[in-house]
């Protein structure tokens, strides 16, 4: 149940986040958590939040052992609230000033190919659309949501491009189809969609949210986890590393993966 401060904060921040549905849901949850904490500090209105309250919140997160990545997400939510109440200066402009160190975030990762293949086969054993989604991620370096939504191909000057639906609220981007493996996967995806009467890989009886949840749950059950070095995100690492070896620039890699900042490529290669 939302708290009084939580409702106040979410109303002030508003609904135009410019983000995908999953990101928006996470942001709302973080805003609610922040507001709940502020209530324990005796605040009667979110407008009363000050620098000392911001510091206490992040010290509280550190004491709980919250990861740097999660703390960074809370920092984003905190800045949204601060901006909404006209107090941008109560939140430091850099995460480092909040004691958030994400240096370990930028570590290239390599998957366990044998385990990843086991997970792939297990997903195909459950449902063809789930296996095809994994293959789309594998050959194009897509996010999970993108793999479920993207399947259209356009042709420019005799070259084929996969139209990738932006998973973070951004515009669709086009990825050139260069390999026979990519074409083969797209062909199988097209046949599956035609046979099921859908428009994407998402089954007609499932919403996007339900399909994402099922894919996440089944990935975990079949061993597609970080601990096993077989989680789906590793496909993006592999794609970035391959592009880097082929001489692509950081800007080209970032754009291909759908990132707005070149610096994020450090995370992949």
From TrEMBL:
<protein>
    <submittedName>
        <fullName>Integrase domain-containing protein</fullName>
    </submittedName>
</protein>
<keyword id="KW-0233">DNA recombination</keyword>
<keyword id="KW-0238">DNA-binding</keyword>
<dbReference type="InterPro" id="IPR002104">
    <property type="entry name" value="Integrase_catalytic"/>
</dbReference>
<dbReference type="Pfam" id="PF12834">
    <property type="entry name" value="Phage_int_SAM_2"/>
</dbReference>
<dbReference type="InterPro" id="IPR013762">
    <property type="entry name" value="Integrase-like_cat_sf"/>
</dbReference>
<feature type="domain" description="Core-binding (CB)">
    <location>
        <begin position="8"/>
        <end position="86"/>
    </location>
</feature>
<dbReference type="InterPro" id="IPR010998">
    <property type="entry name" value="Integrase_recombinase_N"/>
</dbReference>
<dbReference type="Pfam" id="PF00589">
    <property type="entry name" value="Phage_integrase"/>
</dbReference>
<dbReference type="InterPro" id="IPR011010">
    <property type="entry name" value="DNA_brk_join_enz"/>
</dbReference>
<keyword id="KW-0229">DNA integration</keyword>
<dbReference type="InterPro" id="IPR044068">
    <property type="entry name" value="CB"/>
</dbReference>
<dbReference type="InterPro" id="IPR024457">
    <property type="entry name" value="Putative_integrase_N"/>
</dbReference>
């Amino acid at each position: 149940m939302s708290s009084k401060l939580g409702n106040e904060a979410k109303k002030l921040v508003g609904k135009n986040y410019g983000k995908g549905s999953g990101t928006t849901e996470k942001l709302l949850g973080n805003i609610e958590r922040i507001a709940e904490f502020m209530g324990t500090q005796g605040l009667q209105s979110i407008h009363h939040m000050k620098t000392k309250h911001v510091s206490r919140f992040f010290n509280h997160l550190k004491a709980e052992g919250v990861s740097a990545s999660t703390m960074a997400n809370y920092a984003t939510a905190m800045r949204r609230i601060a901006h909404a109440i006209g107090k941008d200066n109560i939140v430091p402009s850099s995460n480092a000033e909040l004691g958030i160190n994400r240096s370990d975030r930028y570590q290239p990762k390599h998957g366990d190919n044998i385990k990843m293949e086991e997970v792939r086969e297990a997903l195909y054993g459950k449902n063809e659309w789930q296996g095809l989604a994994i293959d789309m991620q594998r050959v194009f370096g897509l996010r999970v949501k993108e793999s479920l939504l993207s399947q259209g191909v356009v042709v420019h000057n005799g070259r084929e491009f996969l139209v990738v639906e932006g998973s973070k609220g951004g515009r669709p981007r086009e990825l050139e189809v260069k390999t026979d493996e990519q074409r083969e996967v797209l062909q199988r995806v097209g046949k599956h969609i035609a046979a099921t009467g859908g428009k994407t890989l998402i089954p007609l009886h499932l919403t996007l949210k339900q399909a994402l949840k099922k894919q996440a749950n089944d990935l975990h059950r079949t061993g597609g986890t970080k601990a096993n070095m077989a989680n789906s995100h590793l496909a993006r690492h592999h794609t970035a590393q391959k592009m880097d070896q082929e001489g692509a620039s950081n800007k080209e890699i970032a754009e291909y993966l759908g990132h707005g900042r070149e610096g994020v490529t450090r995370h992949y290669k």
